[in-house]
């Protein structure tokens, strides 16, 4: 049966790779992000490829704007209206400064995008899923929501929200055939660090230097797999890191002034 899959943040990284993955199946793909030019190029490629079996609908979306979310829903063509899978992927980190030095508007942008944007999309799509008693919401959290690191402050907080909200959704949806999954990747090489460091490519490249991070395709495979499991199987939370990444011990200052 043709699946309708809506991917936010489909212009880059995980979202783009997830679009390519689902495109190999008979599905109707809704590709949404702010960069319409990138979505246009992606849709053109998918529509013309002989190795894909999907149909695409692209739509400009800024998840921080309720009017943009409303417009997305209102302008869906008929065959894209019954959304089976929502991949709440649009998100970003901005900066790595300690909390007392941070640019407050960066915090606001992360909250508006990673939390409120995800809420807006969920609120817009979920009623239809409930009406049809069918669907799967896949939220993209992060290891940053589980394991705090210096400068991760608000970004980590937004991703902790995503995990908890995902669990709350599961609780609300008890008895309904609607799945909710939170996927929490660790270090992955996408445009993420370039955005975090506001276009400082050299600094972004350093994040991945000497490592083998997860690729966007690795994460897309996981997103696809959690959905491909039978409908009675709900992967609640899935944390994934590259093998080269793990936890450090608790930090202790040995230079702090003593009482
Ligand atoms: P990218 O920067 O490559 O992709 C981010 C995507 O989000 C882009 O398509 C961007 O599109 C979209 N986006 C950002 N802001 C908005 C907005 N206001 N409205 C709509 N779309 C928006 O990074 P990733 O692929 O790595 O990031 C995807 C998700 O994965 C994010 O939620 C991120 O926090 C999370 N993540 C990333 C990890 C990593 O190490 N890379 C690890 C764990 C989680 P556009 O700019 O065109 O709007
Ligand atoms: C992205 C992973 O460790 O850069 O969510 O925060 S990390």
Q: How would you describe this structure to a colleague?
A:
With 259 residues, the chain is α/β, with parallel strands linked by helices. It has one domain: 3-Layer(aba) Sandwich (Rossmann fold), CATH 3.40.50. It contains eight helices and nine strands. The strands form two sheets. The chain has a seven-stranded parallel sheet with strand order 3-2-1-4-5-6-9, sandwiched between helices. Strands 7-8 form a two-stranded parallel ribbon. Helix 3 packs parallel to helix 4. The longest helix has 29 residues. The N and C termini lie far apart (68 Å). Bound molecules: NADPH dihydro-nicotinamide-adenine-dinucleotide phosphate and 2-hydroxyethylsulfonic acid.
Instruction: Estimate what percentage of residues fall within beta strands.
Output: 15-25%
Poorly predicted runs of 5 or more residues: none
State the domain count: 1
CATH architectural arrangement: 3-Layer(aba) Sandwich
N-to-C terminal Cα separation, in Å? Answer: 68 Å
Q: In CATH, what is the class?
A: Alpha Beta
**CATH topology tier name:** Rossmann fold
| Series of H and E elements | EHEHEHEHEHEEHHEHE
Output the CATH homologous superfamily: NAD(P)-binding Rossmann-like Domain
Number of DSSP E strands:
9
Shape field: globular
- Spatial ordering of strands, largest sheet: 3-2-1-4-5-6-9
Structural class, judged by helices and strands? alpha/beta
Radius of gyration: 19 Å
